[in-house]
């Protein structure tokens, strides 16, 4: 092995461990916000399995939906040829022990893959307010156990 590389490896190791040691650990709120972003991306990419990996096996909502019903809705939506874009607007997370309440506002746009919220057409989009309940199921692992939503219109979120 090149002696120059061997001399560089210890310095690189020290640099990486110092950086890692100084980095601030993610809060539960940050972890949940990241999960929500990952779920939005999975919906956009039509990755039902990835989206559902964040939904608890015992998911149940006030509309009578269970985990299987949510999966069927997603499968129905991904069968459509239009692209879906999710614009997350406002996310408030409140953690209390192993439960987290999330108030989320989002715009769902269907069409040719708009890159920014300014490009969407109101007739091809909907604005929603979601109330989500997540449950902690392991270190830095949270799952969605309940959700409710209402259409609040796009104009309120642009």
Molecular structure report:
- This protein is of the alpha+beta class and about 160 residues long.
- The protein has one domain: Roll (Nuclear Transport Factor 2, Chain: A), CATH 3.10.450.50.
- Helices cover about 35% and strands about 35% of the residues.
- It contains four helices and four strands, in the order ααααββββ.
- The protein is globular, with a radius of gyration of 20 Å.
- The relative contact order is 0.15.
Compact summary:
With 158 residues, the chain is of the alpha+beta class. It has four helices and four strands.
List its traits:
158 residues; alpha+beta; 4 strands; 33% strand; four-stranded antiparallel β-sheet; Nuclear Transport Factor 2, Chain: A
Could you give the topology of this structure?
Elements (H helix, E strand, L loop, with lengths): L2 H20 L5 H17 L3 H5 L14 H13 L3 E14 L2 E13 L13 E14 L2 E11 L7
Antiparallel strand pairs: 1-2, 2-3, 3-4
Class inferred from helices and paired strands: alpha+beta
Unreliable spans: none
- What percentage of the residues does DSSP assign to strands (E)? 25-35%
N-end to C-end Cα span: 57 Å
User: What Rg is obtained from the alpha carbons, in whole angstroms?
Assistant: 20 Å
**Lateral strand order in the biggest sheet:** 1-2-3-4
Secondary structure tally: strands: 4
What is the residue-mean pLDDT, rounded to a whole number? 84
Q: H/E order of the elements?
A: HHHHEEEE
Number of structural units classed as domains = 1
List the total number of helices.
4
Tell me which CATH architecture applies here.
Roll
**What is the share of helical residues?**
25-40%
Principal-axes geometry comes out as: globular
> Could you describe the largest sheet, including whether it forms a barrel?
4 strands, antiparallel
Provide the CATH top-level class.
Alpha Beta
Using the coordinates shown, work out and report the CATH topology.
Nuclear Transport Factor 2, Chain: A
């Amino acid at each position: 092995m090149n002696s120059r590389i061997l001399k560089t490896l210890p310095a690189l190791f020290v640099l990486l461990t110092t950086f890692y040691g100084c980095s601030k650990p993610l809060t539960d709120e940050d972890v949940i916000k990241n999960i929500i972003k990952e779920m939005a991306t999975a919906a956009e990419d039509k990755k039902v399995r990835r989206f559902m990996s964040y939904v608890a096996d015992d998911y149940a909502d006030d509309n009578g939906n269970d985990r299987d019903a949510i999966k069927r809705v997603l499968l129905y939506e991904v069968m459509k040829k239009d692209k879906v874009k999710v614009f997350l607007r406002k996310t408030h997370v409140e953690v209390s022990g192993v439960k987290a309440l999330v108030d989320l506002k989002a715009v769902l746009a269907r069409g040719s893959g708009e890159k920014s919220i300014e490009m969407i057409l109101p007739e091809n989009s909907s604005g929603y307010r979601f109330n989500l309940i997540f449950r902690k199921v392991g270190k830095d692992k949270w799952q969605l156990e309940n959700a409710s939503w209402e259409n609040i219109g796009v104009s309120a979120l642009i």
